[in-house]
Amino acid sequence: MEVLQLVLSLCGILGLIFFMFFFLKKLQKGGNRLFQGNRLKVIDRIVVGRDTAIVVLSVCEKLMLISISPTKVEKLSELSMSEEEYLSIEQTQEKKTFTFSEVLGKLLNKDDKNQES
After folding, report:
1. Residues 8 and 65 reside in one and the same domain
2. Judging by beta carbons within 10 Å of its beta carbon (0-12, 13-18, 19+), is residue 63 exposed, middle or buried?
3. What is the mean pLDDT of the chain?
4. Looking at residue 37, what DSSP letter applies?
5. Entry pTM
């Protein structure tokens, strides 16, 4: 009787571990959609340090480049393109090999030219 109870407990724990594994895997794949609001979306993200990331954020149809660190969140720039234009750059990036810094440089240069005008 004790052996049966031990085996059932072990099967229950293993089942719970497998359930959590698949649940977390599913959450990781669709996590952005689960936690996004109607007007606020994370479009792109790159980790640049241990606790630091640069994020392209869509806020009410405007794109913003922000940096996130443990101590602060800072707006770096407001990009002068739509979400569709940014995503089309990403698609061409798959066909041609651009680095993130090249795309970021193009976006910031375009934004700087618009601010000077």
Report:
1. no
2. buried
3. 78
4. -
5. 0.48
60 shares its domain with 84: yes
Altogether, the residues listed in the chain come to a count of 117
DSSP H stretches of helix in 1-117: 2-29, 31-35, 83-95, 100-116
Token couple for 66: 């922000």
Helix (H, G, I), strand (E, B) or coil at 70: coil
Question: What gap in Å lies between CA 107 and CA 90, rounded to an integer?
Answer: 12
Q: Cα dihedral sign for 89, 102, 48, 59?
A: negative
User: CA-CA distance, 115 to 37, in Å (whole number)?
Assistant: 29
Q: Do 90 and 42 share a structural domain?
A: yes
Q: Are 108 and 77 in contact (CB under 8 A)?
A: yes
Whether residues 22 and 57 fall in one domain: no
Domains held by the chain: number: 2
What is the percent of the chain where pLDDT is above 70? 75
